[in-house]
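Bench log. Compound arrived from synthesis this morning; before running ITC I wanted a structural hypothesis for how arginine sits in the protein. Inputs:
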Amino acid sequence: MTDKVVLAYSGGLDTSISISWIKENYKMDVIAALIDCGQPDDLEEAYQRALDTGACEAIIVDGKDDFIQDFIYPSIKSNMKYEKTYPLATALARPLIVKKLVEVARSKKAKAVAHGCTGKGNDQVRFDVGIRSLAPELKIIAPQREWNLSREDAIEYAEKNNIKITVTKKSPYSIDENFWGRSIECGVLEDPWNEPPEDIYKWTSIKKDCSESGYVEIDFEKGIPIALDGKKMTGLELISKLNSDAGAYGIGRIDMVENRLVGIKSREIYESPAAEVLIEAHRQLEALVLDRELVHYKYLIEEKIAELVYYGLWFTPLKDSLLAFIEESQKYVTGKIRIRYDHKSFKVVGRKSDYSLYDLKLATYDRTDQFDPKHSESFIKLFGYPYEILGRKGRINE
Ligand code: ARG
């Protein structure tokens, strides 16, 4: 019997040409697994393309709910952004895909799994390290890395082998999409000086008359967004609605140069309207309900978690431990945030919570003020002693 390999198939250029390459070079039967993380692609079409391109079997795996529960919610709770900027849509989906891929491989008794990552990106690390942690017995095949094709060669190979793909030589972007965000690379974007052409944007092309502001109120319960404008929704509905509503104002565009795990810098464009709005809303709610020391310490944990996710270290005891800290911090992150949408920007303009630690009687500057400034005097006296002593010894730089 021929050995089987389960390929993480997206329907795009790289994974489509991988099917014939694996068959040619490894003489294995290829099972194409389409893992649905909310990418807007036509999965039925991709399913058919996998079979037309030579897969012996194609399987659609619905990962949407797991993606929200196990990856997106923790990422909101930890205000997760790599290098303080990238909401990690691509990176977060990888461990989910790995998990599903391994499940399929085990149920089909496959000897190997394959992915279409190039040898230059972060995704190969996320796949390989994840697969080796969950299923050390599986062989890993990475046609793009082993073959090392240029983008032009890949397009030519596809044309020669009659593999239909949506990429052309004129717009050679590499795009990865799921409902937490859309990542765009390659082409003219490779020069960090080039302003991204308007036509690369799909989720944030402006569809609103932006001279009028829009508003939305988001309810959170224990760190999870549960309703928009008072209407309860599933995570999928809520994120999709925010993506389309905020996206219509051109909100959620990110243009950055980031530090890849493999050592190089790369220029990346992201569209992540819902992620941008939800993380900012969540952060502002935390500012209202968490005490100062927790907020400050949480920044450190958040940065480390984002780095672990970016580096492909999802299935690790450190990530589990740090997420347990995050989980504990969310007990009182319940309340309402009001957002104003404007042209390509948004702002939190209101916040309230039953767990608010904001005390008007202490914060106000009017006559109802109950803050006793006498206490400040003594407090500052003690707080400033170390520096007063240094000053007396002449050890302060001017
Ligand atoms: N640089 C991002 C990351 O490593 C996005 C990668 C996007 N992949 C793509 N095929 N466009 O997470």
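What the model suggests: The first helix runs from residue 13 to 26. Residues 90-91, 121-122, 174-176, 183, 185, 268 surround arginine (CB under 6 Å).
ITC booked for Thursday regardless.
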